[in-house]
Design brief:
Helices cover about 40% and strands about 15% of the residues. The chain is α/β, with parallel strands linked by helices. Strands 7, 8, 9, 10, 11 and 12 form a six-stranded mixed β-sheet that branches. The protein has a four-stranded parallel β-sheet with strand order 2-1-5-6, covered by helices on one side. The protein has a two-stranded antiparallel sheet with strand order 3-4.
Length: about 325
């Protein structure tokens, strides 16, 4: 059977197609697609207008300036798209900063006189949406059953973790009561933004109390004073688009503040940097990995030895 020709316009889309067993169907990717590693040899059909080497404050200013003008932060190589003649293009409508939008694609393909590709637009606001998006991609490439199997496998993995977390909190009668840890997930450092969308759901699955952000809603901006007032038990730093080293480089905007050392999470050694770029900020198959990482941080006495993510997916900040 001849494989469909697929172009993926964001990292999570690439990971979904590969998890469905269709890595060889992908003929081009976005400039940010980097997993699995073999995908990097494919041509990139997008470029960013943002200088990502700047500080988190500068990046935020660049994005806001471009978006306020009604422009996209991405450039799409329409000539490459036409040359590759894809059957399916997977992009998203959830975030104007995360990937090229359907409008970007329409502009890039406006003078295409050949057959139009099928465009699958992902819109992952919460976990249920992620599973729906996976199924929609599977349907588009003609693998409905594989989509169902992939989603079922991910849900089973995550359910086992949720069940173990629940059993830990349901301590036998007579043992000390364990309070639900209050957890602040930080999605951007300067200005300060908490994590929304599917992240509160991951926290809830581990029986933690999510301090900021609401499931299924966009990530909210928060004030430094608000973080101090809430004084969470655990702080998980997961800036969108940053790996651990880049997040650590930008951490002084928080850790240099005079109030930092008095926070409960800091005093308790419960501030963690996770690889938000590879895991938490990608609404695809590796959200199951993200839950496993979070489990190690929230309940280390239960999950510490279960998974091998320390130093790869997370580090303690001190």
């Amino acid at each position: 059977m001849e494989l469909p020709r697929v172009i993926t316009m964001l990292p999570s889309a690439t990971e979904i197609v590969c998890a469905l067993g269709y890595r060889d169907a992908i003929v081009a990717r976005s400039h940010e697609c980097d997993y699995p590693n073999s995908i990097k040899q494919l041509p990139a059909c997008t470029k960013s207008k943002i200088d990502t080497q700047k500080s988190s404050r500068d990046i935020d200013n660049q994005v806001k300036f471009i978006v306020e003008q009604g422009l996209s932060v991405y450039r799409v190589d329409g000539d490459l798209l036409k040359k590759l003649n894809p059957d399916v293009i997977v992009t998203q409508t959830q975030c104007e900063v995360c990937a090229a939008s359907p409008k970007d694609l329409e502009d890039a393909l406006s003078d295409w006189t050949g057959g139009r590709p099928k465009i699958v637009s992902l819109e992952p606001n919460g976990l249920t949406d992620v599973w729906t998006d996976i199924q929609n991609v599977a349907n588009a490439i003609g693998e409905q059953q594989k989509g169902k199997e992939l989603v079922k496998g991910l849900l089973n993995r995550m359910s086992l973790i949720e069940e173990k977390a629940s059993k830990f909190l349901a301590r036998p009668k007579g043992e000390p009561h364990i309070d639900r840890p209050r957890i602040a997930c930080i999605e951007w450092l300067d200005p300060l933004m908490a994590a929304g969308n599917w992240i509160p759901e991951l926290v809830e699955m581990l029986r933690g109390e999510n301090v900021f952000g609401a499931a299924g809603q966009h990530s909210p901006w928060i004030e430094w004073d608000t973080l101090c007032k809430e004084d969470p038990d655990v702080i998980v730093v997961m800036p969108c688009g940053y790996d651990i080293s880049e997040s650590r480089r930008n951490m002084p905007v928080l850790s240099d503040r005079p109030e930092w050392s008095s926070l409960k999470a800091v005093k308790g050694g419960a501030v963690y940097i996770v690889d938000g770029n590879q895991y938490f900020n990608r609404p695809g198959p590796r959200l199951a990995d993200s839950l496993e990482i979070m489990a190690q941080l929230v309940s280390p006495e239960v999950f510490k030895s279960d998974f091998e993510f320390e130093g790869i997916g997370w580090e303690r900040f001190s």
